[in-house]
Design a protein that fits this description.
The chain is of the alpha/beta class. It has two domains: about 120 residues, Dihydroxyacetone kinase, domain 1 (Rossmann fold, 3-Layer(aba) Sandwich); about 120 residues, 2-Layer Sandwich (Hypothetical Protein Tm841, Chain: A,domain 3). It is built from ten helices and 13 strands. Strands 10-9-8-13-11-12 form a six-stranded mixed β-sheet, with helices on both faces. A four-stranded parallel β-sheet has the order 2-1-6-7, sandwiched between helices. Strands 4-3-5 form a three-stranded antiparallel β-sheet, covered by helices on one side. Helix 1 links the parallel strand 1 and strand 2. The radius of gyration is 19 Å and the shape is globular.
């Protein structure tokens, strides 16, 4: 075990192979589907959920893990030998995970005063949160101190950005996660909205008449941030839209220097809000050698 244990939650949507390789620990979100209570990526998987979602007459609701869920995981890690834990969570403006983890932090440290826990609000979501977890886990495996890893993640927060598009924003709207993109909900048919997240809140970045044009606009935005042929690390993410995200990948890699990438599918707890057909990316510029 690394000196620092890295903990996150299922909405980070990190591929299972990376989770296993980097020894990342996670807690599942809740999905309430009628009277059913499902656990994200435990009792409900991506394919099954995305097949069902378009048939839903009432959108499921999601809930972050509670303090007890995080406390149980902190205790489990401590019992396995952990003495320091870094707990990394999505924006506190869109989820109660950060607040729940902070409560669990206080409870754990009352019970186990020798255990040091740091909790981070990434002000981000999905694979942006995921990238911070991945880089933190790599740093932990290299033997970096907790303070060094916290500093690394905090450095990533303002430069790690999500950009995505979908055929509709109705899922974000119905789920109450629309942020400052509310005015796009009533857009004309066949308009493809592009959204991002700034300081923890969903924001509109424009609209396009086709997916192809939306992808071009996304690549323009990345290039503007990273520079022409700028170096980036990027996670291509989707919800039941693998072929679409491959098109975006090809466009990105013709115009930027991608030093690391992978494709990931959003977890069901996030797909509730994006809907099937979502395609996008989470990236950060790399101006020096990364961890």
């Amino acid at each position: 075990m690394s000196a620092v244990s890295i903990l996150t939650d299922s909405c980070a949507s990190i591929p299972e192979k990376i989770i296993e390789k980097l020894n990342i620990h996670w807690v599942a979100y809740y999905i309430h589907r009628g009277k059913e209570v499902l656990r994200d990526l435990l009792t409900i998987q991506r394919d099954e959920f995305l097949k069902w979602l378009p048939t839903a007459k009432v959108l499921p609701t999601t809930a972050s893990p509670g303090p007890g869920d995080y406390l149980e995981k902190y205790q489990e890690l401590a019992n396995s030998g952990a003495r320091e834990i870094l707990s990394i969570h999505m924006t506190s403006s869109g989820s109660g995970a950060y607040q729940a983890a902070k409560i669990a932090q206080s409870m754990a440290q009352e019970q186990m005063p020798e255990l040091k826990i740091e909790v981070i609000d990434t002000r981000n979501v999905a694979l942006c949160q995921g990238w911070m977890v991945i880089e933190a886990a790599r740093a932990a495996l290299k033997g970096r101190s907790l303070d060094e890893i916290v500093a690394l993640v905090k450095k990533m927060i303002p430069i790690t950005r999500m950009l995505q598009t979908a055929d509709t924003l109705k899922y974000l709207y119905m789920g109450g996660r629309i942020g400052r993109a509310q005015h796009l909900v009533g857009s004309l048919l066949n308009i493809k909205p592009i959204i991002s997240m700034v300081d923890g809140v969903i924001v509109p970045m424009g609209t396009a008449r086709s997916r192809q044009r939306a992808y071009q606009m996304i690549v323009d935005l990345v290039e503007n941030a990273a520079g022409k042929m700028g170096k980036i690390k990027v996670a291509y993410m989707h919800a039941g839209a693998h072929e679409e995200v491959l098109k975006l990948k090809e466009m990105v890699e013709s115009r930027l220097t991608v030093i690391e990438s992978f494709i990931a599918e959003l977890s069901p707890a996030l797909a509730v809000h994006t809907g099937p057909g979502t395609a996008g990316l989470c990236y950060f510029p790399v101006w020096t050698e990364s961890s």
